[in-house]
Structure formats: C-alpha cells, structure tokens
Write a structure and sequence with these properties.
The chain folds into three domains: 53 residues, Structural Genomics Hypothetical 15.5 Kd Protein In mrcA-pckA Intergenic Region, Chain A; 85 residues, 2-Layer Sandwich (Alpha-Beta Plaits); 80 residues, Alpha-Beta Plaits (2-Layer Sandwich), CATH 3.30.70. Helix content is 20%, strand content 27%. Strands 5, 6, 7, 8, 11, 12, 13, 14 and 15 form a nine-stranded mixed beta sheet that branches. Helix 1 crosses helix 2. The chain starts with a helix and ends with a helix. The protein is elongated and about 65 Å long. Strand 13 and strand 14 form a beta hairpin.
C-alpha cells in the first residue's frame, strides 16, 4: 500500500498533510527517510514506519479516548448544541468515527470514539460486562453502608409510569458526604442518576473515570483526546 495512504488511513492527517510530512523528511521506514508519497510498503514492513522518530499505530480502524467536556452532546453533529464531533480535528471528520455509548450532556470523562463498528456493537451490547467507573457528586443525606449493601445485591427501580426494572449488582464506594464512586457493569439510560434518585439523592455532577482498563491520560484536559495504543485496543477487544 502507498505510504501516504497508510498514514492518512491511520489518522495522522489528510492526504495533503501526510505528503507534506513526507517531503519534510519526517517519515522513515526501517530508519531510512521516505519522501515519496507513492512509495509502496509491504504489509510486513508497516510496523517499521516512524513519524518524527516514533512508530506509527497503523490500523484499518481508528480508536480515540476523549475527555468529554461538560455541555456537549454525545453525537457527531447537531444543528442546535455543541457536540463531541465538533472536537475532532478536520482530518478525522471524514473517517466515519462515532462515539461508543452515550454520556449525558453534562456528564464528563472517558468516551471511546472509533470507526470499528464490530467493536462498538460488542461494547454496547447487553453481553458486555466491562466495568465502568463513575465519580459522583450528589445532594442529600450522606450515603451509608445500607446503600452499599443494597447496590451490591442489585436494586429494583420503581419509577412512576414505568415497569419495575431490576439492575445488576453494582459497587458503591463511599468517599465523603456528597461524593461517591459507582462501579457498573451495564449501561441503562441515565442509570447513575436513577439509582441515586431511588435512594432519595440527586446527582449534581457526574464524571466517568474509566471503561475497563481505558482511562484518561494524566493531565488530559476536557476536550482533548488521544489515540489508543495497541495494548489498549487489545484490552477493549478482550
């Protein structure tokens, strides 16, 4: 495959940007500078391509971890409100990327964005059991060991106008009055808010800290995203 196509398909820039990288001597193959955008690379040599001295993560699919900011829809486009698609650089907006799952408008934290449809389907299916960890700030009396025990057994939501809904066991970690950590293995709509509402508390801030082994990098600011390493991708696919 052409080296410029490998770099562009792997999310390193548009074809024109990648060609500029090559002409500037920033791309090497087995330690040798490659300046010709049309240079053909065998599959076995793709892992030896480096950009600015670092091996590229060549992939048919792209995987990013976004630190979703407050006040953004989990959508790629919207005519009325800001959305996470607005945070992608222009050269990625043609790569058919989409968020996996959904964080509420005011919920922040870890959001996986990819164009791997098979992985996205698996991660959002009811059969997926990877833990999702949330840091919760809430109003109301401090949660107690009573709620810890109830959540560990799996509570039943009894909401007006809805059939009773049994939830899977969840781990509630008490941090301080007004703050806790909640570990879930399912993703019902507004689940954290509904769980705390069932105990007479209301969520005032919600931040997702991790999905399985996937978490934000140290110092990663709201709105910033990073490309997953091969190890992180393998962990999600496991």
């Amino acid at each position: 495959m052409r080296i410029d196509k490998i770099l562009a398909n792997s999310g390193y820039g548009t074809r024109s940007q990648v060609k500029e990288f090559l002409r500037s001597g920033r791309v090497t193959l087995n330690g040798e500078v490659v300046s010709d955008p049309g240079f053909s690379v065998f599959d076995k040599d793709i892992s030896s391509i480096c950009l600015d001295g670092s091996p590229i993560a060549a992939s048919q699919h792209l995987y990013f971890c976004l630190n979703k900011p407050d006040g953004y829809l989990t959508a790629m486009s919207d005519d009325r409100l800001p959305c996470v698609g607005d945070l992608l650089p222009d050269h990625l907006k043609t790569k058919k990327l989409a968020p996996v799952g959904r964080l509420d408008y005011h919920t922040t934290g870890v959001l996986l964005i990819t164009n791997d449809g098979d992985l996205s389907h698996k991660l959002t299916s009811p059969k997926w059991h990877k833990e999702k960890v949330y840091l919760v700030s809430y109003e109301g009396e401090a949660l107690t060991e009573k709620e810890v025990e109830s959540f560990s057994k799996g509570i039943t939501l009894l909401e007006k106008g809805h059939e009773p809904e049994r939830l899977k066991p969840a781990k509630l970690i008490l941090l301080s009055p007004g703050q806790c950590r909640l570990v879930l293995t399912e993703g019902k709509t507004h689940q954290v808010k509904r769980m705390l509402a069932s105990q007479g508390r209301s969520v005032v801030a919600l931040h997702r800290e991790s999905i399985g082994s996937l978490r934000l990098h140290e110092g990663q600011k709201p709105g910033e995203m990073y490309a997953l390493s091969s190890e992180e991708i393998d962990s999600l696919k496991d």
